[in-house]
Amino acid sequence: xxxxxxxxxxxxxxxxxxxxxxxxxxxxxxxxxxxxxxxxxxxxxxxxxxxxxxxxxxxxxxxxxxxxxxxxxxxxxxxxxxxxxxxxxxxxxxxxxxxxxxxxxxxxxxxxxxxxxxxxxxxxxxxxxxxxxxxxxxxxxxxxxxxxxxxxxxxxxxxxxxxxxxxxxxxxxxxxxxxxxxxxxxxxxxxxxxxxxxxxxxxxxxxxxxxxxxxxx
Length: 217
Known about the structure:
Layout: H1 3-9, H2 24-36, E1 46-51, H3 54-61, H4 72-77, E2 80-87, H5 92-104, H6 111-131, H7 135-156, E3 160-164, H8 169-175, E4 183-192, H9 210-213
Antiparallel strand pairs: 1-2, 2-4, 3-4
Helix pairs in contact: 5-6
């Protein structure tokens, strides 16, 4: 597997082939990608809505009406669609929940390690809550970190995708009761296989030169 070639090949799909579906095996791998992404202090401040049915995709497509209608077909014609949502507030209960899961998974050889882990995570959460006053922004950075891993992973699986902020997040929050669950929608990713007439598939990849963006010392 050559990651450079995968990065060169993957692109933002503009039109999906609705007749091509992601296999059940790959859908499980997609769930793995969402679950296994790294995050700051292993906080995992995210929640996902995975739609693979026509009904589910139509519910998500409600957020692509009006001004955002240009993204409606991408949602409806994709094989699957994922809503990425972010934890609005990092509460002590949520921190303890993450700590308890790590304990369950056997990450703490000694009880003191569990206490130290909780205190360290709590300290960083408090820095962002009281000093930087950017708790949600910090949490959403982790969701975008997940997106990077997700898009690369889809490339490895040879699955096409497009990440979209061009949807109505409030509609998604209301449709899936995200705010009641303590989350809010951040963006949507449609995935599947591109149509033969997707104009973006044939265009050359364009990036700023390495000389411009990388300074070697």
